Amino acid sequence: MLQNRVLLFFIMFSFVLASCDSNRVFDTYKSIPNKWHKDSIVTFKITPPDSTNAYNLFVNFRNTNAYKYNNLFLIVEMVFPHGKTVKDTLEYKMAEPNGKLLGAGYTDVKENKLWYKEQVIFKEAGEYTVNIQHAMRENGKVNGVIELEGVTDIGFRIENINNK
Question: How far does the signal peptide extend, from start to end residue (predicted)?
Answer without folding.
Answer: 1-18
